[in-house]
UniProtKB/TrEMBL annotation:
The keyword Magnesium does not apply. One of its GO terms (biological process) is translation. PANTHER family: 50S RIBOSOMAL PROTEIN L36 2 (PTHR47781), LARGE RIBOSOMAL SUBUNIT PROTEIN BL36B (PTHR47781:SF1). GO terms for molecular function: structural constituent of ribosome. This is Large ribosomal subunit protein bL36. It comes from Micromonospora globispora. It comes from the Bacteria. Keywords: Ribonucleoprotein, Ribosomal protein. GO terms for cellular component: ribonucleoprotein complex; ribosome. InterPro entries: Ribosomal_bL36, Ribosomal_bL36_sp, Ribosomal_L36_bact. Signal peptide: none annotated. Belongs to the bacterial ribosomal protein bL36 family.
Amino acid sequence: MKVRSSLRGLKRKASSIVVRRRGKLFVINKADPRQKARQG
């Protein structure tokens, strides 16, 4: 999982979901698990 300062590029990809957990923003992509990232 990458830690990024901006998730804008990842959330534009198809089938990606932005989730807030424990005060952090996560991007989860079931179709392409390499696209997982966290911000904060």
